[in-house]
Design a protein that fits this description.
The chain is of the alpha+beta class and 229 residues long. It is 16% helix and 35% strand. It is globular and about 55 Å long.
Length: 229
């Protein structure tokens, strides 16, 4: 586990693809328990360690996950995430030949998403349909590899599988994302989506915080060519 940011109230760690944030029916140890064990050992804390989960990443996604270390921070962070005061930026490697040219400005994508609980999948429509929720994101092209394009994505809403579903609906399937139409899986079972940056006002100190994730230790990510500003 890699700690990217830490103070008395919050801790932000890098999640590897394949890790789960909270416990589920698989019985695999969640990242939350790993973080608790780290805090307990580092600070020699007796008894139970408090740790609040304030957001999650899908299992095959890597990148930044933030936890609350105090109940005060947990309450405030829950409000901040709900009110859109925590700004999340993602990088996505996509299977798209049409998006190869650098974008100076962000474009906006809007869809109406319907979640299918049984399939654990969302479906995108270009108009409102029954049980749908509006989904909005902004994106631009910031780099490439020999065969793929790199998009920077900013979420304006928080829907189930929003980035995965919306990009697929745009013809920009995330590399390795078989659920949404990728041609083949990644060898490690990941999808090439990274929670790259978190920007927010500290819930207690009221100071601006900007944290960036490292890139996955994968030849594709390490070999990306970023366009110059």
């Amino acid at each position: 586990m890699q700690v990217v940011y830490e103070d008395n109230h919050i801790i932000i760690v890098y999640k590897e693809s394949g890790e789960i944030v909270q416990g589920d029916k698989t019985g695999d140890e969640p990242l939350a328990e790993t973080v608790k064990a780290y805090i307990k050992e580092k600070y020699a804390k007796p008894g139970l360690v408090f740790l609040g989960v304030v957001h999650r990443l899908d299992r095959p996604v890597s990148g930044l996950v933030m936890f609350a270390r105090t109940s005060k921070a947990l309450r405030r962070l829950n409000d901040m995430f709900r009110d859109g005061e925590v700004h999340k930026t993602y990088w996505a490697v996509v299977e798209s030949e049409k998006l190869r040219v650098k974008s100076e400005e962000f474009a906006t994508a809007e869809h109406w998403l319907v979640r299918n609980e049984k399939q654990n999948k969302s479906y995108a429509y270009d108009h409102e349909v029954p049980r749908s929720k509006k989904a909005i994101l902004r994106y631009r092209v910031i780099g490439h590899s020999d065969r793929y394009s790199l998009l920077e994505v900013k979420l304006l809403t928080g829907r189930h599988h929003q980035i995965r579903c919306q990009l697929a609906a745009m013809g920009c399937v995330i590399k390795g994302d078989l659920k949404y139409g990728a041609k083949r899986s990644n060898a490690d079972g990941s999808i090439s989506l990274l929670a790259r940056r978190l920007e927010f006002l500290h819930p207690v100190k009221k100071e601006p915080v900007v944290v960036e994730s490292p890139l996955p230790q994968d030849p594709l990510w390490q070999g990306l060519k970023l366009y110059q500003p």
